[in-house]
Protein backbone atom coordinates (compact mmCIF):
# COMPACT_ATOMS: atom_id res chain seq x y z
CA UNK A 1 0.00 0.00 0.00
CA UNK A 2 1.31 3.47 -0.90
CA UNK A 3 1.83 6.01 1.87
CA UNK A 4 -1.10 8.23 0.83
CA UNK A 5 -3.65 5.46 0.29
CA UNK A 6 -6.42 4.73 2.83
CA UNK A 7 -6.12 1.58 4.91
CA UNK A 8 -9.10 -0.33 3.51
CA UNK A 9 -8.66 -3.20 5.95
CA UNK A 10 -8.90 -0.81 8.89
CA UNK A 11 -12.02 0.83 7.41
CA UNK A 12 -13.63 -2.58 6.94
CA UNK A 13 -12.80 -3.54 10.52
CA UNK A 14 -14.26 -0.31 11.90
CA UNK A 15 -17.48 -0.70 9.89
CA UNK A 16 -17.84 -4.32 10.94
CA UNK A 17 -17.30 -3.45 14.60
CA UNK A 18 -19.95 -0.72 14.44
CA UNK A 19 -22.28 -2.89 12.35
CA UNK A 20 -22.06 -0.55 9.38
CA UNK A 21 -22.47 -2.03 5.92
CA UNK A 22 -22.55 0.55 3.14
CA UNK A 23 -24.08 -1.97 0.76
CA UNK A 24 -27.24 -1.95 2.85
CA UNK A 25 -27.63 1.85 2.69
CA UNK A 26 -30.30 2.96 0.21
CA UNK A 27 -29.66 6.70 0.58
CA UNK A 28 -27.95 8.44 -2.31
CA UNK A 29 -27.54 11.72 -0.42
CA UNK A 30 -23.90 12.73 -0.09
CA UNK A 31 -22.55 15.32 2.30
CA UNK A 32 -20.06 17.96 1.13
CA UNK A 33 -18.12 17.94 4.40
CA UNK A 34 -15.31 15.56 3.41
CA UNK A 35 -14.99 17.08 -0.05
CA UNK A 36 -14.71 20.55 1.47
CA UNK A 37 -12.23 19.29 4.07
CA UNK A 38 -10.14 17.90 1.21
CA UNK A 39 -10.26 21.30 -0.50
CA UNK A 40 -9.07 23.01 2.70
CA UNK A 41 -6.34 20.39 3.09
CA UNK A 42 -5.15 20.87 -0.48
CA UNK A 43 -5.09 24.66 -0.25
CA UNK A 44 -3.87 25.31 3.28
CA UNK A 45 -0.50 26.96 3.72
CA UNK A 46 -0.02 27.36 7.47
CA UNK A 47 -1.44 24.00 8.63
CA UNK A 48 -0.56 20.54 7.32
CA UNK A 49 -1.84 17.06 8.17
CA UNK A 50 0.64 14.23 8.28
CA UNK A 51 -0.73 10.94 6.89
CA UNK A 52 1.36 8.60 9.01
CA UNK A 53 0.56 10.65 12.10
CA UNK A 54 -3.14 10.46 11.28
CA UNK A 55 -2.92 6.66 11.04
CA UNK A 56 -1.16 6.56 14.40
CA UNK A 57 -3.90 8.72 15.95
CA UNK A 58 -6.61 6.46 14.47
CA UNK A 59 -4.88 3.40 15.88
CA UNK A 60 -4.67 5.05 19.30
CA UNK A 61 -8.37 5.93 19.24
CA UNK A 62 -9.28 2.42 18.11
CA UNK A 63 -7.19 0.83 20.85
CA UNK A 64 -8.78 3.10 23.44
CA UNK A 65 -12.27 2.17 22.22
CA UNK A 66 -11.45 -1.51 22.60
CA UNK A 67 -9.82 -1.09 26.01
CA UNK A 68 -12.61 1.03 27.47
CA UNK A 69 -15.39 -0.92 25.78
CA UNK A 70 -16.92 2.14 24.11
CA UNK A 71 -20.18 1.53 22.26
CA UNK A 72 -23.43 3.27 21.45
CA UNK A 73 -24.72 2.27 24.88
CA UNK A 74 -22.05 4.46 26.49
CA UNK A 75 -24.07 7.57 25.59
CA UNK A 76 -26.98 6.67 27.85
CA UNK A 77 -24.76 5.74 30.77
CA UNK A 78 -24.15 9.37 31.71
CA UNK A 79 -26.45 10.54 34.50
CA UNK A 80 -27.56 13.68 32.65
CA UNK A 81 -28.49 12.11 29.33
CA UNK A 82 -32.15 11.11 28.95
CA UNK A 83 -32.97 7.42 29.29
CA UNK A 84 -36.45 7.11 27.74
CA UNK A 85 -36.63 5.81 24.18
CA UNK A 86 -39.50 8.01 23.01
CA UNK A 87 -40.38 11.27 21.28
CA UNK A 88 -39.66 13.32 24.41
CA UNK A 89 -36.02 12.22 24.21
CA UNK A 90 -35.87 13.08 20.50
CA UNK A 91 -37.16 16.54 21.44
CA UNK A 92 -34.55 16.81 24.20
CA UNK A 93 -31.68 15.89 21.88
CA UNK A 94 -32.88 18.32 19.19
CA UNK A 95 -33.02 21.15 21.75
CA UNK A 96 -29.69 20.18 23.28
CA UNK A 97 -27.83 20.15 19.98
CA UNK A 98 -29.60 23.25 18.69
CA UNK A 99 -28.02 25.14 21.61
CA UNK A 100 -24.77 23.19 21.81
CA UNK A 101 -22.23 25.92 21.14
CA UNK A 102 -19.81 28.23 22.97
CA UNK A 103 -19.88 27.73 26.76
CA UNK A 104 -16.47 29.01 27.76
CA UNK A 105 -15.66 32.49 29.04
CA UNK A 106 -13.02 34.76 27.62
CA UNK A 107 -11.34 34.86 31.01
CA UNK A 108 -10.04 32.12 33.35
CA UNK A 109 -11.51 28.63 33.17
CA UNK A 110 -12.58 28.89 36.82
CA UNK A 111 -15.05 31.61 35.82
CA UNK A 112 -17.01 29.38 33.43
CA UNK A 113 -20.80 29.28 33.31
CA UNK A 114 -21.79 26.68 35.91
CA UNK A 115 -24.97 24.79 36.81
CA UNK A 116 -25.43 23.01 40.13
CA UNK A 117 -27.66 20.00 39.58
CA UNK A 118 -28.16 16.67 41.32
CA UNK A 119 -25.44 17.44 43.82
CA UNK A 120 -22.74 18.23 41.25
CA UNK A 121 -21.35 21.27 39.46
CA UNK A 122 -21.49 21.15 35.69
CA UNK A 123 -19.63 23.27 33.13
CA UNK A 124 -19.24 23.29 29.36
CA UNK A 125 -21.59 21.08 27.37
CA UNK A 126 -22.82 19.42 30.55
CA UNK A 127 -23.97 22.76 31.95
CA UNK A 128 -26.40 23.00 29.04
CA UNK A 129 -27.71 19.46 29.56
CA UNK A 130 -28.06 20.10 33.29
CA UNK A 131 -29.95 23.35 32.71
CA UNK A 132 -32.42 21.60 30.38
CA UNK A 133 -32.99 18.76 32.86
CA UNK A 134 -33.38 21.26 35.69
CA UNK A 135 -36.01 23.19 33.73
CA UNK A 136 -37.99 20.03 32.98
CA UNK A 137 -37.85 19.09 36.68
CA UNK A 138 -39.35 22.51 37.43
CA UNK A 139 -42.20 21.99 34.99
CA UNK A 140 -40.86 24.30 32.28
CA UNK A 141 -41.36 22.63 28.84
CA UNK A 142 -38.06 23.90 27.47
CA UNK A 143 -37.75 21.06 24.92
CA UNK A 144 -41.21 21.67 23.41
CA UNK A 145 -41.15 23.69 20.19
CA UNK A 146 -44.71 24.91 20.90
CA UNK A 147 -43.30 26.59 24.00
CA UNK A 148 -40.49 28.29 22.06
CA UNK A 149 -43.01 30.13 19.89
CA UNK A 150 -45.24 31.28 22.74
CA UNK A 151 -43.76 34.66 23.56
CA UNK A 152 -46.27 35.11 26.37
CA UNK A 153 -45.09 31.98 28.16
CA UNK A 154 -41.54 31.66 26.82
CA UNK A 155 -40.42 35.15 27.70
CA UNK A 156 -36.89 36.47 27.89
CA UNK A 157 -37.17 36.42 31.67
CA UNK A 158 -38.21 32.74 31.66
CA UNK A 159 -35.29 31.77 29.40
CA UNK A 160 -32.89 33.72 31.60
CA UNK A 161 -34.25 31.74 34.54
CA UNK A 162 -33.91 28.41 32.68
CA UNK A 163 -30.28 29.11 31.85
CA UNK A 164 -29.40 30.83 35.14
CA UNK A 165 -25.88 30.30 36.35
CA UNK A 166 -24.63 29.12 39.73
CA UNK A 167 -21.39 31.01 39.18
CA UNK A 168 -20.80 34.74 38.57
CA UNK A 169 -20.61 34.04 34.81
CA UNK A 170 -23.87 34.04 32.85
CA UNK A 171 -24.65 31.67 30.00
CA UNK A 172 -22.58 32.91 27.03
CA UNK A 173 -24.48 34.12 23.96
CA UNK A 174 -27.85 33.76 25.67
CA UNK A 175 -29.56 36.14 23.23
CA UNK A 176 -28.27 34.09 20.31
CA UNK A 177 -29.59 30.92 21.93
CA UNK A 178 -32.99 32.54 22.40
CA UNK A 179 -33.00 33.46 18.71
CA UNK A 180 -32.14 29.88 17.76
CA UNK A 181 -35.10 28.56 19.76
CA UNK A 182 -37.55 31.06 18.24
CA UNK A 183 -36.28 30.47 14.72
CA UNK A 184 -36.31 26.67 15.01
CA UNK A 185 -39.77 26.75 16.58
CA UNK A 186 -41.13 28.72 13.65
CA UNK A 187 -39.56 26.37 11.11
CA UNK A 188 -40.85 23.27 12.90
CA UNK A 189 -44.33 24.82 13.03
CA UNK A 190 -44.43 25.83 9.38
CA UNK A 191 -42.79 22.75 7.90
CA UNK A 192 -43.27 19.86 10.33
CA UNK A 193 -46.47 20.60 12.25
CA UNK A 194 -44.39 21.58 15.29
CA UNK A 195 -42.92 18.09 15.48
CA UNK A 196 -39.26 17.09 15.72
CA UNK A 197 -40.32 13.52 14.99
CA UNK A 198 -41.88 14.60 11.68
CA UNK A 199 -38.57 16.25 10.81
CA UNK A 200 -36.73 12.99 11.51
CA UNK A 201 -39.22 10.98 9.46
CA UNK A 202 -38.64 13.15 6.40
CA UNK A 203 -35.02 11.99 6.33
CA UNK A 204 -36.25 8.40 5.81
CA UNK A 205 -33.60 6.74 8.02
CA UNK A 206 -30.75 8.55 6.25
CA UNK A 207 -28.10 10.29 8.33
CA UNK A 208 -26.86 12.26 5.33
CA UNK A 209 -30.38 13.33 4.38
CA UNK A 210 -31.11 14.52 7.91
CA UNK A 211 -27.87 16.51 8.12
CA UNK A 212 -28.64 18.12 4.75
CA UNK A 213 -32.24 18.83 5.75
CA UNK A 214 -31.13 20.49 8.99
CA UNK A 215 -28.50 22.58 7.23
CA UNK A 216 -30.88 23.59 4.43
CA UNK A 217 -33.86 24.52 6.60
CA UNK A 218 -32.38 25.64 9.93
CA UNK A 219 -29.83 28.49 9.72
CA UNK A 220 -28.63 27.61 13.24
CA UNK A 221 -27.36 24.27 11.90
CA UNK A 222 -25.80 25.77 8.76
CA UNK A 223 -22.17 26.34 9.73
CA UNK A 224 -20.26 27.23 6.60
CA UNK A 225 -17.75 29.84 5.54
CA UNK A 226 -15.68 31.02 2.60
CA UNK A 227 -12.14 29.76 2.03
CA UNK A 228 -10.01 30.57 -1.00
CA UNK A 229 -13.07 31.75 -2.93
CA UNK A 230 -15.14 28.64 -2.19
CA UNK A 231 -17.96 27.89 0.28
CA UNK A 232 -16.86 25.15 2.68
CA UNK A 233 -19.28 23.30 4.95
CA UNK A 234 -18.71 21.74 8.38
CA UNK A 235 -22.23 20.92 9.61
CA UNK A 236 -20.82 20.10 13.02
CA UNK A 237 -23.93 20.30 15.21
CA UNK A 238 -26.20 18.78 12.57
CA UNK A 239 -23.91 15.75 12.52
CA UNK A 240 -23.73 15.70 16.32
CA UNK A 241 -27.53 15.61 16.40
CA UNK A 242 -27.52 12.54 14.17
CA UNK A 243 -24.79 10.89 16.23
CA UNK A 244 -26.62 11.59 19.50
CA UNK A 245 -29.88 10.14 18.17
CA UNK A 246 -28.05 7.08 16.82
CA UNK A 247 -26.26 6.47 20.12
CA UNK A 248 -29.21 7.22 22.39
CA UNK A 249 -31.65 4.97 20.52
CA UNK A 250 -28.97 2.35 19.82
CA UNK A 251 -29.43 2.58 16.06
CA UNK A 252 -33.15 1.81 16.23
CA UNK A 253 -36.40 3.78 16.13
CA UNK A 254 -35.65 7.50 16.05
CA UNK A 255 -31.96 6.59 15.97
CA UNK A 256 -32.05 4.32 12.95
CA UNK A 257 -29.78 5.58 10.18
CA UNK A 258 -28.96 3.18 7.36
CA UNK A 259 -26.01 5.29 6.18
CA UNK A 260 -24.52 6.37 9.49
CA UNK A 261 -20.99 5.94 8.10
CA UNK A 262 -21.52 9.09 6.01
CA UNK A 263 -21.15 11.44 8.94
CA UNK A 264 -17.70 12.62 9.94
CA UNK A 265 -15.69 13.26 13.07
CA UNK A 266 -15.90 16.79 14.40
CA UNK A 267 -13.49 18.89 16.44
CA UNK A 268 -14.47 20.54 19.70
CA UNK A 269 -15.09 24.26 20.15
CA UNK A 270 -12.11 26.51 20.74
CA UNK A 271 -11.91 25.92 24.47
CA UNK A 272 -9.29 24.61 26.86
CA UNK A 273 -9.93 21.21 25.25
CA UNK A 274 -8.67 22.64 21.98
CA UNK A 275 -5.26 23.01 23.57
CA UNK A 276 -5.40 19.38 24.61
CA UNK A 277 -6.36 18.40 21.06
CA UNK A 278 -3.52 20.43 19.59
CA UNK A 279 -1.08 19.05 22.14
CA UNK A 280 -2.16 15.45 21.55
CA UNK A 281 -2.19 15.68 17.76
CA UNK A 282 1.18 17.38 17.59
CA UNK A 283 2.54 14.77 20.00
CA UNK A 284 1.62 11.96 17.58
CA UNK A 285 2.78 14.18 14.70
CA UNK A 286 -0.65 14.38 13.08
CA UNK A 287 -0.78 18.16 12.61
CA UNK A 288 2.04 20.51 11.75
CA UNK A 289 1.67 24.28 12.27
CA UNK A 290 3.59 27.14 10.77
CA UNK A 291 5.63 28.67 13.59
CA UNK A 292 3.81 32.01 13.22
CA UNK A 293 0.45 30.50 14.25
CA UNK A 294 0.95 29.26 17.78
CA UNK A 295 3.13 30.91 20.46
CA UNK A 296 4.05 27.57 21.99
CA UNK A 297 6.01 29.32 24.73
CA UNK A 298 2.71 30.42 26.25
CA UNK A 299 1.61 26.82 26.74
CA UNK A 300 4.23 25.24 28.90
CA UNK A 301 4.18 21.53 29.67
CA UNK A 302 3.06 22.33 33.21
CA UNK A 303 0.21 24.52 31.90
CA UNK A 304 -0.98 21.79 29.54
CA UNK A 305 -0.73 19.16 32.27
CA UNK A 306 -2.95 21.29 34.51
CA UNK A 307 -5.53 21.73 31.76
CA UNK A 308 -5.53 18.03 30.91
CA UNK A 309 -5.87 17.10 34.58
CA UNK A 310 -8.90 19.35 34.99
CA UNK A 311 -10.51 17.96 31.85
CA UNK A 312 -10.02 14.33 32.89
CA UNK A 313 -11.79 15.00 36.17
CA UNK A 314 -14.98 16.23 34.46
Low-confidence stretches: 269-284, 296-314
Radius of gyration based on Cα positions? 20 Å
How many strand units? Answer: 6
How many helices? The count is: 14
Key terms:
314 residues, globular, 49% helix, two-stranded antiparallel sheet, 14 helices, mainly alpha, disordered C terminus
Give a description of the structure.
It contains 14 helices and six strands. The protein has 314 residues and is mostly helical. The strands form three sheets. Strands 1-6 form a two-stranded antiparallel ribbon. A two-stranded antiparallel ribbon has the order 2-3. A two-stranded antiparallel ribbon has the order 4-5. A hairpin with a 2-residue loop joins β4 (224-227) and β5 (230-233). It is globular, with a radius of gyration of 20 Å. It starts with 7 loop residues before the first helix and ends with a helix. Residues 269-284 and 296-314 have low confidence and may be disordered.
